[in-house]
Design brief:
Elements lengths: L1 H21 L5 E2 L5 E2 L37 H43 L8
Antiparallel strand pairs: 1-2
């Protein structure tokens, strides 16, 4: 059960550190419920860091955003909707005309195939 004692000691140290950082001087409660007054001494050690230049990879530059179209006037919206509706009607009429042509062509080929087919064999 050595790990339990190590865990309890780590928890007590962590709580003491947190209290020293936050400036609180409350007693620390250990996991078994007992209260322990703690005094934490912090030693600051100056560390000289060597100047090291690190080249970071260059991230690709995103393209500039596309400019927004200028705002439309109210009357412009109405004319645009009318133009879109007219285009839609033209497309629908074209599709209907193509369907009618295809149907007529198919029926013509079918009638020609029936007319030109040989007579069925006679039954005995």
């Amino acid at each position: 059960m050595k790990w339990i004692a190590e865990r309890d000691a780590l928890i007590a140290q962590t709580l003491a550190f947190v209290q020293s950082v936050t400036g609180r001087k409350d007693d620390v409660l250990q996991p078994d419920g007992t209260s322990v007054a703690t005094t934490v001494a912090v030693e600051i050690v100056a560390v000289k860091a060597a100047a090291v230049e690190i080249e970071l990879p260059q991230a690709p530059v995103p393209p500039p955003p596309t400019p927004l179209p200028p705002p439309r006037a109210i009357g412009d919206f109405r004319s645009e909707m009318q133009a879109r509706i007219a285009n839609f009607r033209k497309h629908q009429e074209r599709f209907e005309r193509e369907r009618e042509e295809y149907c007529a062509e198919t029926l013509t080929r079918l009638r020609a195939a029936i007319h030109d087919s040989p007579a069925p064999p006679a039954r005995k």
